[in-house]
Amino acid sequence: MTPLKPIPRGRRIALGVAFFVLFVALWAAVTFSGLVSATFLASPLQMLKGGWELLTRFDFAQDIAVTIWRVLGGFVIAAALAVPLGVAMGAYKPVEAFFEPFISFSRYLPASAFIPLLILWLGVGEAQKLAVIFLGSFFQIVLMVAFTVGQTRRDLVEAAYTLGASDAGILKRVLIPYAAPEIAEHLRLTLGWAWTYVIVAELIGSSSGIGHMITDSQALLATDQMIFGIIVIGLIGLISDFVFRAANARLFHWKFA
Amino acid sequence: MSKLLIDEVERIFPGVRGGPATRAIEPITLAVEDNDFITILGPSGCGKSTLLRIVAGLDTPTAGRVLLDGAPIAGPGADRGMVFQSYTLFPWLTVRQNICFGLREQGMAQARQDEICDFYLDRVGLTAFANHLPRQLSGGMQQRTALARALANNPKVLLLDEPFGALDHQTRELMQELLLGIWEQDRKTVLFVTHDIDEAIFMASRVVVMSARPGHIKCDIPVEFAHPREYLIKTTPGFAALKARLTEEIRGEALRAVEMGA
Fold this sequence. Notes:
The complex is a heterodimer.
Chain A: H1 9-32, H2 44-57, H3 60-91, H4 93-107, H5 115-122, H6 126-150, H7 154-162, H8 167-203, H9 210-219, H10 223-251, H11 253-256
Helix pairs in contact in A: 2-10, 3-4, 3-6, 3-8, 3-9, 4-6, 5-6, 6-8, 7-8, 8-9, 8-10, 9-10
Chain B: E1 4-13, E2 22-32, E3 37-41, H1 48-56, E4 63-68, E5 71-72, E6 80-83, H2 95-99, H3 101-105, H4 110-123, H5 139-152, E7 157-161, H6 169-186, E8 189-194, H7 197-203, E9 206-210, E10 217-222, H8 237-259
Helix pairs in contact in B: 4-5, 7-8
């Protein structure tokens, strides 16, 4: 194979689908043959049956809706606060000097380790779930946005100054539009991470949501339902990523088209 | 009174990590009259771009001052338009929006902005590309847009820092004719930095030669060819004689620059 040589679109899709097929085939082989006991791993067919049961009898759609709501809620709150702070840090060096060390430190505090504390402070209600997602996303977004804004091409800033731009004009008409597509990409990535935080939050101290269903199914050794839950998370993540990506491509066609 | 007066301007860059300071420009005095087209010619690293950046207000002199219409400049401003060597169009804005950038900053009414923009689009021959994004344009078209953007602001002085340096030879010559044509109509005061001798002579009313670092003015030669100039003057004996003289002046400086490791 020639390094970096592109392949036709049709072939690329075929290869991507082929791996899914292979994966499911391998899964089917080890489960249907009895090589792995159903106690530990349900077969694909059982998984689908378990999923159907979840959706029709146990109101799993409600759990999915609750989880999506939590992810979006926590993520939107984090982004709404983190993006302006990140822009301010990227643009104004004193602001950066003030916040950056603390935020860099906070970034390494694992959000999931805060769950016991958050339960103590906020109980096991929605506020605690949102707080976990907020802690997991906020610091990451701030730092990535600040870095992106700080990386704005200096010659564009200088050109704007020679065209008579004020300091506020530089921020509004150069730094923000220049950084916007990258910021949107950071948000897309962070939304993906928010999905892992919500599940962790729901595994501990929750009475609804996909994560809660998975812990419930564990008690019943229902591997079919557990796997179905995990796959649903993956699918929703994939769809949200796709939508986000399409929106970015549309909004910032000067960069991504 | 001169339109623009560079008065004893000196620039010393502080040493990095305790290293020796770099003296980029020795005290330079240069008076630019209204309607002058001055090209500043010098070997690379002679501080000619630094000088232009100081006039633009993007760099601060260590000593000396720059007067525009008798008033000292403080920082960059719309009265000194600049075209850079690198492509500095805002990639998220169309050609039209780029040209209107400074006008919008002034809060000018949209109709008036469009009127001015249309005029300069026509001047640089890009009317058909008004709604294109910069990445859809060739290098030459991008620099023409950058020129229109700087002119649209109606600056008192137009500063050009090797604006055609990244273009191929043919495009470069066409750009020179375009810029000269615009100057012949407007007679705007121009400071044009270049290391290309043909380019320096062809457009200039005065060629200022800078020495190798630390930069100072080595000679200041008027160019007397009549206007409007055609590209054919590049092949005339008068042009060749001037070129020969400048080549000698520059060559010595370039050799010195190489010896210094520039």
